[in-house]
Amino acid sequence: MPKHRPPNHFGEVFPPVPFDAGRYAKRRRQVFRQLGEDVLLLYNPPEAHRTHDLFYRYRPDSDVYYLTGFEEPEAVVLLVGGPCPRFIMFVRPRDPEREMWDGLRAGVEGAVTCYGADEAFPIESFDAEIGRYLEHARTLYFKFGRDEQFNQRVLTAFRAAARRRHRQGPAPGVIRDTLPLLGRMRLVKDADELLRMRRAADIAAEAHLRAMERARPGQYEFEVEAELEYVFRKRGALGSSYTSIVGSGPNATILHYNTNNSRLRDGDLLLIDAGAEYGYYASDITRTFPVGRQFTAAQRDIYDLVLQAQKAAIDAVQPGARFNAYHEVALDTLIDGLRHLRLLSGSHDEIRELRTYLKYYMHRAGHWLGSDVHDACTYFTDETRNGQHLYEKLRPGCVVTVEPGLYFAPGVNDTPEHYIGIGVRIEDDVLVTRTGNEVLTAAVPKEVADIEAIRCAALTQEKNYA
Q: Which positions fall inside the Aminopeptidase P N-terminal domain (predicted)?
């Protein structure tokens, strides 16, 4: 069987990421340089209820974490620009009784001594204190979130500051989304971020290979999902970076399928789309392989075409290229292949113009990747051409996913019988470098010969599942 395990990586347990106050202070200084005399307000929402009085495991807002490293719920971060920029935090105060149940809190004192805030207040005082920080700013940068009550509290403070405009001088005149301010900054990863993303990719790569080696006809999809989750946590990831997709047979044609409760059948394909989150940075990998030993002829036709499109798209991920360039390359390759297989009729240009390919390929070829799986940056610039906004250019330090696919769902008209129920997607995480690109998830095999060798070995000899 081919060797895919890079030495000194697979099997290594990565410890929790240590807190480095200087790293976050440096990022805040970058924001202050852009902020001028405006104000940026970020928010860690409360814990989300799972059932009754139980909560989901907490994850901080990505922007809050990016600028502070603060992980506790119910916290406000305020960056106030001006000649003397200030970093203010509103946090939950220390509470020995609650800490006995839920764990230690930084408290107001810790926000200053540990996290570097210039001032800190109990979260309960937010409404009373926020007004004075808005009084002299023309713009408030704030991302409206799902907490409608908090959104309303910010709006109330904003309106109160605006009413004082004529009496006390300039007050906020507009609320702007944080995306233009922080999105571009987060788009290019620094060395610490890339280290976390490499570890997230390495963990997920091992998990995918384990699933490829251990999947068996007759198992349930959730058993394969359990193999993924085991590696994620065993290696030191916080868990999945999104709900894992483990879809066999026709389930693989459902783009966001995650019920994961069907039995695996010999002769079907198994599509696994799963990533690990390490240090609040994501990986995102998809592989498709036979439940049995080999691809059928029809499955291989589709798989080879998707792999060809993915390789061509990866080659198009280059510094200076527009973000959409690699999608266009993947789409052109898929259209040519579908015409060759006589699954689409008409000329290449007609298929593109009429978008008849959408019945088999209905998504883009990738997205930004970082702290969020769909990382928080716009895909378009302010530049225009022929009245259309241009896509962002890829820059060294950007990370994208490359994930073309083809899906032949039951019930789609004019699909030959032997293709029905086939779903194939192949996805890698690709870092843009100064000279080209680097595939962070290359450790997971995707060549047909390698996959079939792994599957044959897996089904020929018994594995130790301990």
A: 19-151
